[in-house]
Amino acid sequence: xxxxxxxxxxxxxxxxxxxxxxxxxxxxxxxxxxxxxxxxxxxxxxxxxxxxxxxxxxxxxxxxxxxxxxxxxxxxxxxxxxxxxxxxxxxxxxxxxxxxxxxxxxxxxxxxxxxxxxxxxxxxxxxxxxxxxxxxxxxxxxxxxxxxxxxxxxxxxxxxxxxxxxxxxxxxxxxxxxxxxxxxxxxxxxxxxxxxxxxxxxxxxxxxxxxxxxxxxxxxxxxxxxxxxxxxxxxxxxxxxxxxxxxxxxxxxxxxxxxxxxxxxxxxxxxxxxxxxxxxxxxxxxxxxxxxxxxxxxxxxxxxxxxxxxxxxxxxxxxxxxxxxx
Length: 326
Ligand SMILES: Nc1ncnc2c1ncn2[C@@H]1O[C@H](COP(=O)(O)OP(=O)(O)OP(=O)(O)O)[C@@H](O)[C@H]1O
Hints:
It is found in: Cell inner membrane. By secondary structure, this protein is α/β, with parallel strands linked by helices.
């Protein structure tokens, strides 16, 4: 399958229709992720990261729906797959982990059983085999005493252990793509680092691609080779992770980079306040004309208030959507 991306999103639009009116919650979304690659989607809360991920796995529900564009998995259009085909894609090929594992785990079923179920349902294993594989899966995510822990219910595990169990379930069937939506936001910093390291190592060993979603540019750039920055339902910049710090091109990305504490700096030690991006993200129903970042942008001119910028290729590699890009 050389040359064919694992997943390719082309000009995706996601509509939000509340019955009285229909607005585009996200539009013009295009990116590709190759086999085994790590790709990040970053942006402030509400910019459309999670709904983009849900669209990829065919899990958008009313009032949201795909309003245009194409999503291809190994060259096949996901929207054209039957319901059964989409289910098989979600079970076997694409897995997802969320911020709060409690919402994804079944509270009345032991975690071992939930892992074993994946092997029974998607790999045709017997329960006996599947139970053994569940112990191995928990061991692979470094859960201590896995042969005992398989019998624990989700509420008996700490937040970090629950997220490990979620990763075990997600990776059970050897997916080609793991979508991780704010996987560590609810955890404290030390546990966060351990979980990220674990996820990254397991995926690298198995050749699993990662689509990581977070509001935290530092975290995403640390895990991913390439990063797309979203603002108000559009991708405004896509770059290699190192380039995004060295020479951010879009004023919004520049703002995000300026608001990151540098390791060991006075800001990281909490002694000075970091530069925040002034203003707030507009609501879906009141996206401004032209560039949606223009009301918050110090570089905005008349054209930014009226004309939507096209996506330009950067000489140094990458894409940017700004009339005045650096
Ligand atoms: N089920 C829904 N009904 C109505 N609006 C929704 C629904 N789900 C998402 N939205 C809206 O769509 C927009 C994009 O939401 P999305 O969850 O993708 O944002 P996000 O960037 O992932 O932010 P967060 O990190 O806060 O989840 C938001 O304005 C949100 O309010």
